[in-house]
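User: My collaborator sent over this chain with a note saying "see what the structure looks like." That's all I know about it. Can you take a look?
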Amino acid sequence: MTLDRSKHPLFDVTIEGILLTIMADSGSSINILDEQDYNKLSPRPSLEQTRSKVYPYQTEAPLPVLGQFTSIVASETVNRTETFYVVKGTSGSLLSWRTSTDLQLLKVVKPITHQNIPTVEQLTTQYQDLFQGLGKLKDYQVQLHIDEGVPPVAQPHRRVPFHVRKQLEEQLSQDEKLGVIERVEGPTPWVSPIVVAPKPNSPGKVRVCVDMRRANTAVQRERHITPTIKEIIGDLN
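Assistant: Without extra context I'll predict from the sequence alone. Here is the result:
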């Protein structure tokens, strides 16, 4: 399997005096040689039988292990004696996290410890400007694709209970001041009813929702492919 050096952490190392290009995997706990790289070694070291099972990341099926051997692996500056598991096929070879750091191929720049993790209070103090007021996306116009073939629907108003009307007026006034909603003057072809519900953990406050189900029938959906975890990890490497 051929990998792109610009997208993967590939390094040149020697095993049994033979130069091989292997990927350093910070998430691997063992060293792996695929059958293709193992056959490049001359002479090929004898394989010892092993009962160890090798699993790829986030899979339940083990790789077919042909055996294991111990050999000297060397980078440009350091050499170490390490154990390698040989797997059938051409799936690629890996150097474990420990071997990669011992060979000075990977380096921990700043490990995260409990002392390095800031508390919520520290974050809110350091970034006070981000934790004040209402979080709102500014200076950006959202574009909705409307199906002009869907006729507008003016739905009837839903009666608001008397005991929450005052809270509703206060909430609408506050939302208008914050720029969450805008007052519309004159006729409008679309009318969607609001639904008012008291906030259980905030006495005297109400949650205002809009029933947009009929209006949403006129909105044309944009389709986007959601990448899988494996694809995201592959792009990060």
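A starting point for your reply to your collaborator: Residues 27 and 216 are 44 Å apart (CA to CA).
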